[in-house]
Amino acid sequence: MNGALWALAAGVGFGLFQSVNRQAMRGMNLFLATFVQLVVSAVILAVISVLTEDLGLLRSAPLSAYFYFVAAGFFHFLIGWTFLNASQKKIGAARTSPLIGTNPVFATILAALTLGEFPAPLELAGIGIIVVGAYMISREDPEEGNGANTPRSAIAILQTSWLGLSAAFCWAVSPIFIRLGLRDFPSPLLGVTIGVTASALAYGVILFAQRRDWMGAPVTGEAWVYKLTAGLLVGLSTWMRWVALDLAPVGVVASLTMISAPTVLLLSPLISGRHLERVTTILLVGTGLIVTGALLLTFL
């Protein structure tokens, strides 16, 4: 299977994960749900690493590489996944997924600030399209689904969108550390396994500190099934994305994995119910604009 197919599989997997995860978040504490997600993903990636990678590389890796991969993991998994789960719990998967699609905007801004890579005019156009799409989705009331008829204040917009946008920002920061780590330790799969494992261990401490919030709250068997399935899906999707990056250009992988957004729009109402996941015209148009803008940034 070539890199493009691996990227498509990863995109569909991420979409399935977000759709299933939304249902799991309804019946679980935020911190417990994120910890379970991290542990399952860490186990999956560790097993795949043992089966496919030379573990002897770990002994010769410099400490700086471990530091960079752990930092990348903290931004992407520990912090980013917390924001993702919180956003899904607050406004649902259908509205969170396109907000995460604003990731290229933050990546472009960070590249300009840290690497001096300033966007060209057409790239600025792509950023503008993404911002318009994100604004359309953010201004729509997630409870009513009729943002076109119900004007909302800037504060109200920020309250419903900042969690998803924060996840997108964290996922734009993590590649900076990944790039630094891969300079001295050229094994992406082992690198991401180090990051997610460190994040799972650190989240165990957070979970213990928050034990009063979740120990007394019962979790249904259905919620456990959905959460374990979500962890399995995101772990496998992360692995497939790294395989795709090894076989195909980054731009191709980034664009093809964006199939996750329409996948969420299609599946989340079926899994969680249309009364919880309202896919409106504004949501569809906003998602289309974000995907279009992201594709412009990817291929320019």
Give me the secondary-structure topology:
Elements: H1 3-25, H2 30-52, H3 57-60, H4 63-91, H5 93-100, H6 103-115, H7 121-139, H8 154-184, H9 188-209, H10 211-214, H11 221-247, H12 250-256, H13 260-272, H14 281-299
Helix pairs in contact: 1-4, 1-11, 1-12, 1-13, 2-4, 2-9, 2-11, 4-5, 4-8, 4-9, 5-8, 5-13, 5-14, 6-8, 7-14, 12-14
Description:
The chain has one domain (3-299). With 300 residues, it is an all-alpha fold. The longest helix is centred in the middle third of the chain and has 31 residues, at 154-184. The mean pLDDT is 84. Helix 2 (30-52) packs antiparallel against helix 9 (188-209) and helix 5 packs parallel to helix 14. The two termini are 26 Å apart. The chain is 81% helix and 0% strand. It has 14 helices and no strands.
How would you sum up this structure in a few lines?
With 300 residues, the protein is mostly helical. It has 14 helices and no strands.
Low-confidence stretches: none
Can you write the helix and strand succession as a string?
HHHHHHHHHHHHHH
CA radius of gyration is 19 Å
Number of strands: 0
How many structural domains? Answer: 1
Percentage of residues in strands: under 5%
What does the average pLDDT come to?
A: 84
Q: Helix share of residues?
A: over 70%
Quickly count the helices: 14
Main sheet makeup: none
| Straight-line N-to-C gap | 26 Å
Overall spatial form: globular
Helices and strands: which structural class? mainly alpha
